[in-house]
Design brief:
Blueprint lengths: L1 H7 L2 E7 L27 H7 L10 E5 L3 H11 L5 E5 L5 H13 L6 E6 L3 E2 L2 H16 L3 E6 L10 E7 L7 E7 L4 H10 L2 E11 H11 L1 H12 L2 E3 L2 E3 L2 H5 L6 H6 L5 E6 L3 E2 L4 H7 L8 E3 L2 E4 L5 E4 L4 E4 L4 E5 L4 E5 L6 H10 L10 E4 L2 E9 L2 E8 L7 E3 L3 E9 L2 E5 L2 E5 L4 E4 L5 E4 L6 E9 L8 E4 L6
Parallel strand pairs: 1-2, 1-4, 2-3, 3-11, 6-12, 14-16, 15-17, 16-18
Antiparallel strand pairs: 4-9, 5-13, 6-9, 7-8, 7-9, 8-12, 10-11, 18-19, 20-21, 21-22, 22-29, 23-30, 24-27, 24-29, 25-26, 25-28
């Protein structure tokens, strides 16, 4: 009966998108982390995650994300044609256990036996058919009263992953096993033993869970977390198309991963070992592992010239990168930064992130192109008391009604049509036309046209920081 129910009921994808991904700096940054980037295909990792759980077997996805990324995530979902059940905004990061608890509470309120497929938004899966087959096996195990994790069959003695040791097979469910134990990241010797023994799998961080069972186990193991999660959801409010959790109770949660809070302590854990071309894309070396290589073992993306280069990951997001005689290197060039390091030290990128944070450098958090709900702006040049930006406003979107105390702005329309509010005047600007916004003048920029609006903005004044802004009206409810 349980197996039949698992076959009939829709599976509810719960996609977690809260990480910063600093190990993939300089492409991944706090304001635009790796799950929002097209690193493995032409689509972002988030879009690929959503796409692989689309179809008759799956319900609409429930997204739990960082509040700062909400508009970009909503736009990427729109581009993918996905209509989420909800986009839930975390006021602060509290790891995965409370995020899953929020999703379980939402689903269980309408469907107590709902099966949740919990997926990080930043993984790569090459064999989607094999992934779906593993999901079906896990659904049967979950419907029988198990909290299921997916164990990836190891292809190497990897020391960067935790492992799951499988126990006895679950009766009547081919391919599913009890969890004997979880093992922390091992040293090289133990990792080799795990691979040789054949009973251990990489802990993927993906789960298939009955919502009510997860809540029951969390109630037993960490009742305070569940209490605060419930309070955060009970106090949640609607913000446009988003569900904004109550910040006070959610902020009081002691953040813990689902592994530590539940899976490693429950007696109901099961594992489905699988091989479907999985990678957690945790470093530049992992992208080299899954990338398409030339005859010399190089992965080359963007404008690259390589002479006598071997086994390297060479990537450019614009400028020409030329490499001669390099071996085993990672070279990643963006508009404002270049990373160079040995491939076998790819995990040490976090040390660069630490230095950037200590020095308060903007390259840690922001790209030159900064996305906003209305479009984006991009720095072009800056000097003493001036800076030049490109501004792109999406069709039908508008900036807030605002003013700046310390700077003036000059706008030149490159293409499209701009509707400009300046003080008490409202007028249209067309291609090659311009206007001037004096300091302390209320103004607004809108795109009433049918194509994106592109303009050049020249700012001048004593202070040009983004915090010199006073908003009076904003359709996106930004404070």
């Amino acid at each position: 009966m349980a197996a039949n129910k698992a076959n009939d009921a829709k599976i509810h994808p719960v996609i977690l998108s809260g990480g910063a991904g600093t190990r993939l700096w300089p492409m991944s940054r706090e304001a635009y982390p790796k799950q929002l980037l097209a690193l493995a295909t032409d689509h972002s990792l988030l879009q690929d995650t959503v796409t692989r759980v689309t179809g008759a077997r799956f319900a609409a996805p429930l997204i739990v994300c960082n509040v700062e990324h909400r508009f970009v995530i909503a736009e990427q979902l729109r581009q993918s044609g996905a209509k989420p059940r909800a986009i839930v905004l975390e006021p602060v990061g509290r790891n995965t256990a409370p995020a899953v608890a929020i999703a379980a509470l939402m689903l269980a309120a309408e469907e107590p036996n709902a099966l949740m497929l919990v997926l990080p938004s930043d993984h790569v899966i090459r064999d989607v058919a094999a992934f779906h087959a593993a999901v079906e096996t896990a659904a049967k195990a979950a419907a029988s009263g198990r909290l299921v994790t997916f164990g990836m069959t190891p292809t190497a003695p990897e020391t960067g992953y935790g492992y799951v040791e499988r126990g006895a097979a679950l009766k009547g469910i081919d391919g599913a096993f009890q969890v004997a134990r979880f093992v922390e990241k091992p040293d090289a010797r133990r990792a080799k033993q795990f691979v040789a023994g054949g009973k251990h799998a990489w802990n993927s961080g993906m789960f298939l869970l009955p919502a009510s069972l997860y809540l029951a186990e969390l109630e037993r193991l960490d009742p305070e977390m569940l209490k605060l999660s419930r309070a955060a959801l009970d106090g949640a409010g609607n913000d446009l198309d988003f569900t904004r959790l109550a910040p006070d109770p959610f902020g009081k949660i002691a953040g813990r991963s689902i592994d530590y809070a539940v899976m490693e302590q429950t007696a109901k854990a099961a594992v489905v070992p699988a091989s479907f071309g999985w990678s957690d894309v945790g470093s530049w070396s992992s992208l080299w592992d899954i990338g398409e290589k030339d005859a010399n073992g190089n992965v080359m993306l963007g404008d690259i010239i390589a002479v006598d280069a071997v086994d390297s990951y060479l990537r450019s997001e614009g400028r020409l990168v030329a490499a001669v005689g390099v071996e085993g290197l990672v070279v990643v060039a963006t508009e404002d930064a270049v990373l160079v390091l040995p491939k076998d030290r790819a995990q040490d990128v976090r040390r660069i992130a630490d230095v950037l944070k200590q020095q308060g450098r903007p390259e840690l958090g922001l790209h030159p192109r900064v996305y906003r709900p209305w479009g984006f702006y991009q720095g072009i040049h800056e000097g003493d008391r001036f800076q030049v930006k490109r501004i792109t406003v999406s069709v039908g979107q508008s900036l807030s009604l605002q003013l700046h105390h310390h700077r003036a702005e000059h706008w030149i329309v490159v293409n499209g049509t701009a509707k400009v509010t300046r003080g008490d005047d409202t007028f249209l600007l067309h291609e090659n036309e311009s206007t001037y916004i004096p300091p302390s003048t209320k103004h607004r920029l809108e795109n009433p046209g049918k194509v994106p609006l592109n303009l050049i903005e020249v700012q001048s004044g004593a202070y040009l920081g983004e915090d010199d802004i006073v908003r009076f009206e904003d359709v996106y409810n930004r404070k």
